[in-house]
Amino acid sequence: MAQVVAAMALTHSPGLTGWFDRAPENQRREARGALDTMRERLRAARPDVILLFSNDHLLNWPINNTPEYTVGIGAEHAGPADWYDEWLALEKYRIPGHPAFARHLVNEGARRRLGLAYLRDMQFDDGVSVPMHYLNPEGDIALVPVTMNCTVPPIPTPERAYQVGATFREIVKGYPGAERVAVVATGGLSHEPGGPRYFWVDEEFDRWFLELLAAGDHAALLRECTLERMEAAGSGGTAELLAWMVALAFTTGPAEVLAYMPAIAWRSGTGMVVWPHAAD
Amino acid sequence: MGNVERCDKTLPLNEMIFYVRRDAALRARWLTDLAGLAREFGLGQAEYEALRDRDVRRLNEMGVHQYYIPQILRLFYGASANSNAHPALEAYRKAYPEEAAASDRLQARLGRGQG
Questions:
Q1: How far is A239 from chain B (nearest CA, A)?
Q2: Does A267 touch chain B (CB under 8 A)?
Q3: Is the confidence at residue A214, as pLDDT, over 50?
Q4: Which of A132, A134, A242, B84 has the fewest CB atoms within 10 Å around its CB?
Q5: SS3 labels along chain B
Q6: Nearest partner of A264 among B67, B97, B83, B36, judged by Cα
Q7: pLDDT at B49 over 60
Q8: Whether residue B113 has pLDDT greater than 70
Q9: Which phi and psi (to 5°) does residue A85 adopt?
């Protein structure tokens, strides 16, 4: 039976690699420190596979067909996608996949009435490339990416994301291998990519959201942090936090907030958290 | 709901950008044959003109998905070092001066980076 050995979440804004040096020194220092801590905690958990929840920025699926969730089932993942490498200032990388685990997710999802699309050759932009650059720089921990649609309406609700997370948790627990699984969620915090408030960060929302995570009451978080509240804090981007709510379902109790930066230079509220305790 | 709800999922321009970004041959034509690309993807005249004019506000108001507008600008201006001082972001500053000024005030309060 597979076991969840780590759960964490972080921002994946392209500025974290593409124009990192444009943020004030205190923000760069805080980001580096938190990312180092996350990488060390991830290593210490000795995962066999990273189950990464991110979102598709209309890269893998055209706007006429945007599945709610998509699993990357390939034996190897390669990124960043052409054209995005220049934007992210990243060299091409390769990371092994875990096809048996990934295909188990897809098929068991279907048996539990959770429809999961899949891709053998998933393309990667900031959503996967930025967290892998910082957390898995050697590409030596296998990766199973799961992308969600939280940018093309209709955008799912937090309750739905948490429910999907709980189903994923059951499916992971039911995997016949003894894999040690690290759950990583990426996206958020407040930002409005490509909208009128492109340069805006809603620090008040971000700190409120992180306090809810630190309080550890999942029901309260789902009740308070509505889709409308996320949209008000930055349309079309803040709802990437739905990936965090998927991960939340793998955990119990408070999150430890490692860092928060209202990083206008990176055009995103920027945060990093770890959950010390996995749910049973 | 917010700005993302403006998106017109059936707008031909929203289909066109998906394919252009993923195809080096189409990207190469962006700066040399935008009109030809627009014809092939069935863009209306208003879509084509907003695109040609790099008009951020018009693109947003006609329902281009907000993720695609910065990508359209990067196809015109280049993708590297896409900081707030990049020409693609300057186009946003011109399109939404009030929102940009509010962000500048926030930036000043928080301590200024290098833009």
A1: 11
A2: yes
A3: yes
A4: A134
A5: CCHHHHCCCCCHHHHHHHHHHCCHHHHHHHCCCHHHHHHHCCCCHHHHHHHHCCCHHHHHHHCCCCCHHHHHHHHHHCCCCCCCCCHHHHHHHHHCHHHHHHHHHHHHHHCCCCC
A6: B83
A7: yes
A8: no
A9: -65, -40
**Amino acid at position A76, single letter:** E
- pTM as predicted: 0.97
Whose tokens are 């699309």? That residue is: A117
What are the φ/ψ torsions at residue A26 (nearest 5 degrees)?
-65, -35
Between CA B73 and CA A198 the distance in angstroms is 14
Residue B31: φ, ψ to 5°? -90, -10
Say whether pLDDT at B110 is over 90. no
CB A87 to CB B80 under 8 A?
yes
Distance CA A193, CA A236 (A): 7
Name residues 156-195 of chain A within 8 A of B (Cβ). Answer: 192-195
Count of CB atoms situated within 10 Å of the CB of A164: 23
CB contacts, 8 Å: B115 with chain A: 22, 265
Closest to A220 in 3D by CA, of A228, A230, A212: A212
- Strand, helix or coil for residue A181: strand
Q: Could you tell me if residue A217 is left (phi over 0), alpha (psi between -120 and 50 degrees) or otherwise beta? A: beta
Measure the CA–CA gap between A140 and B95, rounded to whole angstroms.
44
3-state secondary structure A32-93: HHHHHHHHHHHHHCCCCEEEEEEECCCCCCCCCCCCCEEEECCCEEEECCCCHHHHHCCCCE
**pLDDT one-digit tens code per residue, A97-137:** 999 999 999 999 999 999 999 999 999 999 999 999 999 99
